[in-house]
Structures are given as structure tokens and as C-alpha cells.
Amino acid sequence: MPRVSQDQLDARRQEILAAARACFARHGYEGATVRRLEEATGLSRGAIFHHFRDKDSLFLAVAEDDAAAMVETVTRNGLVQVMRDLLARAVSPDTTGWLGSQLEVSRRLRTDPAFAKRWAERSEAIAGATRERLLRQREAGVLRDDVPIDVLAQFLELAYDGLVLHLAMGRPAGDLARVLDLVEEAVRRH
At what angle do helices 79-88 and 149-168 cross, to 10 degrees? Predict the structure, then answer.
């Protein structure tokens, strides 16, 4: 029997994550049945669950994948850049899936204590990256210094949450780039 390389396994895992993200976004966690996951991925349940222990682990892996990408962008360019990237891709089916996943994470945080406990670490990674970026910006003299870092971080997190909700509700992106300019201007030193 031929051996499968780690690169092939990793590629298959990423394919499953992409298809599962769209399935969870379209149907919600409960509606993304194993049959729908099979249809979305084009794989059998055995092939899917060879890579993930169960549906809950698969959903958490999708959410973790999204959170890791977000932490990377926040670390490099800040939370406003995450919002700009989201806005630039607002019409893409991938973004629609990502928004749906974010809403599903929010719902599960309110309704599933075990999930909330598992998710706390990922949430803190995003918040920590945001605070670290803000501290670096303040040290560089770019960021206003009359407002505590934690308040600025909360302000940006609220703007992000509002943008996600706005787009997930299917509202038009309209002139939101100018709104993001205003958000960015609000945290900058004048």
C-alpha cells in the first residue's frame, strides 16, 4: 500500500477545512450534518474524521485556522488592516463563509460552555496581538497617548465586531472604507 506524504495529508486537511468552513457558514453548526460535510468535501465520513476526531473538533479547527490568520495580520499590520482586508473581500464566497463561521463562533460562545472554555485561548491570542501592536505603535509615536491601550483595544474590537455583523447581515459595504479611515484616525496621534 503506497504511503501518503505529510504534505499530502496537510493538503487534504486544508481542503477539508475550506469545504467545512463553507458548510458551517451555510448551514450553521447543527445544520452542517455529517452528510452535508461529506457532500461539501467530496469525501467519506471516514476520510474526514481520519483528520478530525469529530464534528466539534472540525468546527474548532476551522475557527482556529481563521483566528491564526487574524493574529498574523494583527501582529504585522494591526486590527484595522484585518477590517480593511475583510471589507476588500466582502463579496467573495470565501469571506461569506468566514463571516458565517465567525457568527457561529459567537453563538457557540454564548450557548456552549465547553466550547467557550476551549475558545478562550484563541480569543486571548487575538486580543494579545492587538494590545502588542498598539503598544509598538504607541512607542513609535504613531498612536495617541491620552487613552489607555486596553480602551483603544476594546474600541477596535467593537469596530471589528460591528463590521462583521454588518457584512454578515448582508448589508451593503457602501462607503465603509471611509468609516475604517475614521476608526484608524481615532486611535492615531494628532
Answer: 10
Q: How many CA atoms lie within 13 A of 52 on its CB side?
A: 22
Residue type, 22: A
- What is the Cα–Cα distance from 43 to 46, expressed in whole angstroms? 8
Whole-number Å distance between alpha carbons of 27 and 8: 28
Alpha-carbon gap, residue 154 to 144, rounded angstroms = 15
Please state the separation of Cα 14 from the chain's center in Å.
Answer: 15
User: What pTM value is reported for the model?
Assistant: 0.79
Residues paired with 119 in a beta bridge: none
Quick check: helix, strand or coil at residue 143? strand
Local confidence band at 172 (pLDDT 50, 70, 90 cut-offs):
confident
